[in-house]
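Researcher: We plan to redesign the surface later, but first we want a full-length starting point. Tokens attached.
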């Protein structure tokens, strides 16, 4: 009887001691940053062609550099762009609010490692499953192509939002 109880207790505790699932990784090796929602907000945005409400957050290195007006941002800077499907508020239809989670994208600054893409590594994780975007590492060409017009601002569309 004691063995049965011990086996049951240990069986119930197994999930506590089981290793956590590894965060997803994009085909180019850029990993998912699970703490991105605890970073500081850099700016909100809305993308009409996708119908997405977005916020851009940054790690401490990126936020400090953006506040100081640094261009380019230093290595170690990481930005996250979080997107939700936009929808009307059910009780206030003229208000647009976040609906279903769409994706999160990351830009990771490492001038040497990502020299071919302006010093930035890109990653995108889709839906609640956080499915890595892209069949192979070549997906970054698509990402970088959009950012090329912003070369003078370190390939960033986003600036630190101004508040009083």
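Model: Full-length starting sequence:
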């Amino acid at each position: 009887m004691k063995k049965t109880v011990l086996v049951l207790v240990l069986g119930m505790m197994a999930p506590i001691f089981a290793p956590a699932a590894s965060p997803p990784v994009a085909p180019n090796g850029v990993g998912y940053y699970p703490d991105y929602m605890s970073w500081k907000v850099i700016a909100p945005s809305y993308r009409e062609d996708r119908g997405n409400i977005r916020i851009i957050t940054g790690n401490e290195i990126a936020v400090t550099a953006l506040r100081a007006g640094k261009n380019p941002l230093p290595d170690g800077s990481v930005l996250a762009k979080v997107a939700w499907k936009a929808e009307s508020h059910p009780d206030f239809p003229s208000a647009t609010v976040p609906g279903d989670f769409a994706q999160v994208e990351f830009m990771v600054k490492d001038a040497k490692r990502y020299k071919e893409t302006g010093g930035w590594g890109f990653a995108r994780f889709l839906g609640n499953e956080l499915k890595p975007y892209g069949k192979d590492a070549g997906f970054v060409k698509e990402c970088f192509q959009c950012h090329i017009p912003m070369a003078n601002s370190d390939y960033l569309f986003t600036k630190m939002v101004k508040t009083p």
